[in-house]
Amino acid sequence: MSDTLLAILHMIIFPGGIFALAVGFFFKGLDRRVEARLQRRVGPPLKQPWLDTAKLLTKETLIPNTACRQTFLLAPVFGLTGMAVCAAFIPIPGVYSGLNNMGDLLVIFYLLPIPAIALMIGGSASSSPFGALGFSREMLLMLAYETPLLMILLAVAMIAGKSIAGGAAGAEFSLLKIVAWQQQTGSLGLNTAMIPALLAYLIFLPGTLGVTPFDIPEAETEIIEGPLLEYGGPLLALFNMTSALKTFVLLGLGVALFFPGVISAWWPVNLIWFLLKCLVLMLLSITVVKSATGRFRIDQAFRFYVTIPVALALCSLILVWVM
User: What are the UniProt keywords, alphabetically (predicted)?
Assistant: First the structure.
């Protein structure tokens, strides 16, 4: 089987595509269920994200008369495709090593903003004033949370590069080599120098996933879904699927960066272990925070991300540099 065909299968079936979508929807359904129980509510069933998306796929596609038609239609497709490709780069330790062994941190860093960009493009193309307001909020928030992410990835690349190169200065941006190195020497999440970076990553997750308290661009009570206001039917279903894929990608990336250890030579056990670690990351960084906080203002969210997570990531960078 050619490398190109194998890469396409990875993007469509496993670990991207169907598998990532199923895991993402399961995590989103479990997140809503646990949040409801923490707030003493019954909550929706675990299959609710599937039901919502399936219902949207049966609806009619409506396009505003004043919208830029082609851009409005292509924006959700662009976001979904970007996340499907990104999901194929995420290694599952003990099961899957990465897309053509090219799990490059820089490639992932450039692919991760695609859903936010698609949301901004779609919102601006809808010609809705709420979409334009959501566009500006999303852009400002993305500039804020992408800064600590870059610093986190640099800290991981530097500590792995110095160790792999035997103490020589440099950085290792191959996610495959970083995962393999941690499996030999220990998880970075347990390294003193990298604990601030881990905390910064946990703070980064709710912002990039657009959940409370950082759901500012789509605030229902303020700008009635903002960029998504004019979307419905299959197009809105594509945005829902993109969100599910992004949930899998970010949780899987967190496991690969900080806790990529395996516990068995049998791949089904390692797959379950990987999903359990993703689940713990989700509960700690998303579910508990959602159930206990209200929505930030955009200025509060921007100041928060350029201070606390940036300071934590910078602390890890300095510790890695001086060690």
Answer: Membrane, Transmembrane, Transmembrane helix
95 and 270 Cβ atoms separated by less than 8 Å: yes
In this structure, how many other beta carbons lie within 10 angstroms of the beta carbon of residue 219? Answer: 20
Three-state DSSP state, 175: helix
Q: Which of 86-95, 180-189, 291-300 has the lowest mean pLDDT?
A: 291-300
Q: Which residues contact 285 (CB under 8 A, 6 or more apart)?
A: 202, 203, 205, 206
Report pLDDT for 154: 94
Q: Residue 19 contacts by C-beta under 8 Å, 6 or more apart in sequence?
A: 13
| Residue 101 pLDDT class (50, 70, 90 cuts) | low
